[in-house]
Design a protein that fits this description.
The complex is a heterodimer of chains A (396) and B (160).
Chain A: H1 2-7, E1 13-17, E2 29-35, E3 38-45, H2 53-58, H3 65-70, H4 77-92, H5 98-126, H6 130-151, E4 160-161, E5 164-165, H7 173-195, H8 199-205, H9 213-218, H10 224-227, H11 235-238, H12 259-283, H13 301-306, H14 308-320, E6 327-334, E7 339-346, E8 354-358, H15 361-366, H16 368-372, H17 380-387, H18 391-395
Antiparallel strand pairs in A: 1-2, 2-3, 4-5, 6-7, 7-8
Helix pairs in contact in A: 4-5, 5-6, 5-12, 5-17, 6-7, 7-12
Chain B: H1 5-13, E1 18-24, E2 27-32, H2 37-46, E3 54-62, E4 70-78, E5 83-91, E6 97-99, H3 108-119, E7 122-124
Parallel strand pairs in B: 2-5, 6-7
Antiparallel strand pairs in B: 1-2, 3-4, 4-5
Classes of the chains: A mainly alpha (396), B alpha/beta (160).
Chain lengths: 396, 160
């Protein structure tokens, strides 16, 4: 008996999962310590997509940061645009015109819808539900058609400007969005039927990756993963920005904080976001979309060519950048993954002194070991899917 | 009045620790002494009238040419009272370290590692202080203002 035990491999096995693994959408490495199939310990290694976002921002003008923000959470770039523009506007002390605020709400919600589609679709795919993936990718394409109509780009939008927008809402946007949403709702119902009561799917996600509410707070969870624990914290409700206080929408919350609740919260948020877009389109006031302050927002081409002050300010803002007064602010918006915060420090010059992003998926990824310790190696997949780590945002 | 309850309570409790307070665009900021940061954070988290239970963000700023050179910035959020507060503490280049708050909020773990990685500020009592976004052999701390933007790093790997 003792001889047999000596020959058994009873020590733990340490394996690398990643940095390039078919089911980790995002480049991340897990160093796993396993006992059979059970995870004893896990170390998460990130940074593979680090490109020095803050250093780049500190060496460009305030306006030049906007394309960089597209590449943070590249599944919902419009929310990053809006978050950054709002932060700089708070630093300057200006507010965008009403019509601009409505369009920004529409842009944010379209981005949120496409983000949740991607997340649910990819999770389904990685658990073997290929049909659900195809349906939601079709829906995402339709939403991207709308975003393309809005700003000309499908992914890296670069649409919002400090004190305004690149362009007004295009003609026929309302009609087109009505058609798109009709089709998207059909696709949503199909995916709901395919996944929500699917025995195989439920077995993989229910009671997996559970996070109790008090732990979720201590680990800095925000967004759908926090709401899945039953805490209704949503920046749109708790610190209303833009015109979210005039919108009628619900914040879905879960009960157990497991992966199934995270899935359900995201599915319901898709519907709520569509409601917000429809209300915003109905209530949309007329008027300008840019602030009339040539020192912060470019005037129209016509003015630049024909009015001397506009031309001077245009020259100054292009060569030196806009100059927010010295100071520091923190401004948060509800990103698709949670609270997307910007901490900006200005020294009064044309370049940001400090441009810090609080990435919502960074603390979520940090909690991965806590969520999977003691469970099976296969449980990593749904848990990692549902925290929706986006490399561009996590590593910056 | 409502917004200043945090400042008032902290001033009453830690009168010697608070170096300055200010409010800019509605953001309350407190600059506190470095050695008290752990006690102050614990008080903010546990006091029943404050309950700052979220450690939302932790970062640093390099004010090159000033003394002390660095500021470590904490953004806390209270879910119960829906309030935010910014706590800052100043760290000099010669004694480039501050007490870790990982024992209070596990979320601080990765944020402190990031500040260590990019600014070179060490956190005393941190369970695993090593680089997070960059690799182990990286030389220097890129978000310091005296790190040149075009600096090249030596190649690493088995064939170098």
């Amino acid at each position: 008996m003792s001889d047999t035990a000596k020959d058994l491999h009873s020590e733990y096995m340490v394996i690398n999962m990643g940095p390039s693994h078919p089911v980790t959408h995002g480049t991340v490495k897990f160093l796993l310590t396993l006992e059979g199939e059970t995870i004893i310990d896990m170390k998460v290694d990130i940074g593979y997509l680090h490109r020095g976002f803050e250093k780049m921002c500190e060496n460009g003008t305030w306006e030049q940061v906007i394309p960089y923000t597209d590449r943070l959470n590249y599944v919902s770039p419009l929310i990053n645009n809006v978050g950054y523009a709002l932060a700089v506007e708070k630093l300057i002390g200006i507010e965008a015109p009403q019509r601009c605020q409505y369009i920004r709400v529409i842009a944010s919600e379209l981005a949120r819808i496409s983000d949740h589609y991607t997340n649910v679709a990819a999770s389904g795919l990685e658990l073997g539900a290929f049909t659900a993936f195809l349906y939601f990718v079709e829906a995402r394409e339709l939403i991207w058609d709308l975003i393309e109509m809005l700003c000309g780009a499908r992914v890296t939008a670069n649409y919002v400007r400090i004190g305004g927008l690149k362009n007004d809402l295009p003609d026929g946007f309302k009609t087109k969005s009505r058609d798109v949403f009709k089709r998207c709702r059909e696709l949503w119902a199909d995916v709901d039927k395919l996944l929500t009561k699917n025995r195989i799917f439920i077995d993989r996600v229910r009671n997996v990756g559970v996070m109790p509410p008090e732990d979720a707070i201590a680990w800095g969870f925000t967004g759908p993963c926090l709401r899945a624990c039953g805490i209704p914290y949503d920046v749109r409700k708790f610190h209303p920005y833009l015109v979210y206080d005039q919108m009628d929408f619900e914040v879905p919350v879960g009960e157990t904080g497991d992966n199934f609740d995270r899935y359900l919260v995201r599915m319901e948020e898709i519907n709520q976001s569509m409601r917000i877009v429809e209300q915003a389109l109905d209530k949309m006031p007329t008027g300008p979309v840019n602030v009339d302050m040539p020192e912060y927002r470019w005037q129209s081409k016509d003015d630049i060519s024909n009015r001397i002050e506009s031309m001077i300010f245009h020259f100054k803002t292009v060569t030196e950048g806009i100059k927010p007064p010295a100071g520091e602010i923190y401004s948060a918006v509800e990103g698709a993954n949670g609270e997307l915060g910007f901490y900006l420090v200005s020294d009064g010059s044309g370049k940001p002194y400090k441009c810090r992003v609080r990435p919502p998926c960074f603390p979520l990824t940090a909690a991965m070991p806590k969520m999977v310790r003691g469970s099976f190696i296969a449980d990593i997949i749904p848990t990692f899917d549902m925290i929706n780590m986006i490399g561009g945002e996590c590593d910056r | 009045m409502e917004a200043n309850i945090t400042t008032n309570k902290l001033s009453a409790r830690f009168s010697d620790s608070i170096i300055e307070t200010h409010s800019h665009r509605g953001d309350e900021t407190l600059v506190v002494r470095k050695q008290d940061i752990q006690d102050i954070c614990q008080f903010l988290r546990d006091d029943t009238e404050l309950l700052y239970n979220f450690m939302m963000d932790l970062t640093a700023v390099d004010y090159l040419g000033q003394e002390p050179r660095f500021e470590v910035v904490y953004h806390l959020y209270s879910l119960a009272f829906n309030r935010r507060i910014r706590i800052k503490t100043r760290v000099s280049e010669s004694d480039c370290s501050v007490d870790s708050i990982v024992s209070l909020w596990p979320s601080a773990n990765w944020f402190e590692r990031e500040v260590y990685d990019l600014y070179g500020i060490t956190f005393k009592g941190h369970p695993e202080l090593r680089r997070i976004l960059l690799y182990e052999d990286f030389q220097g701390h890129p978000l310091r203002k005296d790190y040149p933007i075009k600096k090249r790093q030596p190649l690493i790997g088995p064939n170098c």
